[in-house]
Design brief:
By secondary structure, the chain is mainly alpha-helical. It contains eight helices and three strands. Strand 1 and strand 2 form a beta hairpin. The longest helix is centred in the first third of the chain and has 19 residues.
Length: 205
């Protein structure tokens, strides 16, 4: 077997392991291996065990470029404690990064109600414990404003299509705009979103 064949097989093995981990990050970026070590298919996987033991011994591995890596900032698996049930739940909803859960300006965490309105999470049940932990970790006290160290890079910001209903009232010289929106940042949208061809006026309903 040639060296090139070995490299190809290794790449395929890494890509398959990344998909099996279902956490959105490369196996080389895992910090806490415990959620997977409880599962037989991982605890008996020599490749996974090699990475885990290498991490325990402070051995670093050179990451292999993966063109299919998901793009995002602040992997949730690095921020909160995971168990296998939570991993499966978030993987099912394809939620892997904090950058998926913020407003379009990258400065605020969306509330659970906002995430539901955007159909990013389940519409049933109360706000889960992991999200409450995340709020306490990444936001300022009594606020959904992100701590500065968790601001999201512009190129990784979400691009939500936020519907709103615009209605003008008052005299022509002093018109005011009323807007109903699914965004938690009402004031910003009221200032930045004048009526245009994308708005839905009350007269159109």
């Amino acid at each position: 077997m040639t060296a090139e064949s070995v490299r190809l097989i290794t790449r395929i093995r890494i890509f398959r392991l990344r998909n099996a981990l279902a956490c959105g990050v490369s196996p080389f970026e895992i910090i806490d291996f415990s959620p997977w070590m409880k599962l037989r298919r991982f605890s008996q996987d020599w490749f996974f065990r090699t990475l885990q033991e290498g991490f325990d011994l402070k051995i670093s591995f050179k990451p292999i470029f993966d063109p299919f890596n998901l793009k995002g900032q602040f992997p949730l698996v690095h921020l909160i404690s995971f168990d296998n049930q939570l991993l499966n739940s978030l993987a099912h909803q394809q939620i892997y990064f904090l950058s998926q859960l913020v407003t379009e300006d990258g400065l605020f965490l969306l509330s659970w109600v906002d995430l539901r309105s955007l159909l990013l999470v389940s519409l049933k049940g109360p706000t889960p414990g992991w999200f409450k932990v995340l709020i306490g970790l990444v936001t300022l006290p009594s606020s959904y404003a992100l701590r500065p160290e968790f601001y999201i890079q512009d190129e990784l910001l979400p691009n939500f299509s936020v519907p709103f209903i615009a209605h003008e009232y008052g005299t022509s010289s002093s018109k005011k705009l009323w807007i109903a929106t699914t965004s938690c940042r009402l004031g910003k949208h009221a200032l930045d979103a004048p009526p245009d061809e994308q708005s839905i006026r009350s007269s159109d309903l």
